[in-house]
Each structure stands twice: as C-alpha cells, then as structure tokens.
Design brief:
By secondary structure, the protein is mainly beta. It has two helices and eight strands; from the N terminus they run αβββββαβββ. It has one domain: Sandwich (Immunoglobulin-like). A hairpin with a 4-residue loop joins strand 6 and strand 7. It starts with 8 loop residues before the first helix and ends with a strand.
Length: 150
C-alpha cells in the first residue's frame, strides 16, 4: 500500500528557500551561456590605405538574437615590441543589435570607431573590437594587419 506523503513545515521552508535562491541567481547564469548564441564575428578585414585616407573595411558577422552590448574598438600600431594601442584611435559605445541589422555598404574605419576619427600615419596596424553583452559574455575580434603608406 502506498501511503500519502506529507511534507513538514521544515521541508516547505526548504523548498521555498531553494526556489528563491534559483530566482535570485538566474540572471547571473547568463554568463555561462556562450556568446555565440547571440553573435559570432567571422572576420574583420581592414584594407590598406594611404596616409590621410580612411581605410575601408569588410566585416562578416552573424547576429542570431536581439541583444544589447557595450563595445570598444581600438586601433593598434605594430612596433618592435608588439602592438601598441593608439589612444586617439579608440571608439566606444553601447548599441542594440538585431538579426536584421546590416552594416553600411561602404564601411570604413571612421564609421566603425564613431564618433572617433582616426588619423593614421604610415605604418602597420590592426583593429581589435570587443563587445560585452548585458549578460557578461564577451566577443572579441582582431582584424588582419593592414598597412598605411605615405
């Protein structure tokens, strides 16, 4: 014969506490979801340019779901010791992203860094961009090394 189970008051309080703890930690569980659920950046290509010209770009990305993210884009110059961030060539902001969003047909470095306008001198550079999603995940993408000639 099966006897009906009776839950004691102590067990009810334990169940309520566990449910409360789950509700309180649910938002922080987002950080365990991979960023690729929202967006993947396949490549960032910056074209070579002449000093005084704004390099054009091509970006291949896939946005799978709507999300909001803060972003930072930094131009780095190749030096003998490695890559050095150019403080006057850093752009940052916060945007909403959606699967139907499209980049401009003529994408260039000034658009990518907006509102920063970066004046590059002859040398070799790369572009690093990081998006921090509202759940704490980060997407990081490096461009190719591009050259600015005199």
């Amino acid at each position: 014969m099966i006897q009906a189970m009776r839950i004691s008051d102590r067990h009810w309080w334990m169940i309520i506490f566990v449910l409360w703890a789950m509700a309180m930690t649910a938002p922080s569980l987002n950080r365990f979801i991979p960023s690729s659920v929202w967006m993947s950046v396949h490549s960032i290509h910056v074209d070579d340019a002449k000093a005084g010209e704004v390099p054009t770009m091509r970006v291949e990305r896939t946005i799978r779901r709507e999300f909001r993210a803060s972003w930072v884009a930094e131009v780095e110059r190749l030096t003998l010791g490695g890559f050095e961030i150019l403080p006057n060539c850093v752009g940052r902001g916060t945007n909403s992203y959606s699967p139907d969003a499209r980049l401009p047909a003529r994408l260039d470095l000034d658009w990518w860094l907006f509102p920063t306008a970066c004046k590059l001198h002859p040398g070799q550079y790369r572009l690093e961009t990081r998006w921090t999603l509202s759940g704490g995940q980060e997407v990081r993408a490096l461009s190719n090394i591009f050259t600015v000639t005199p």
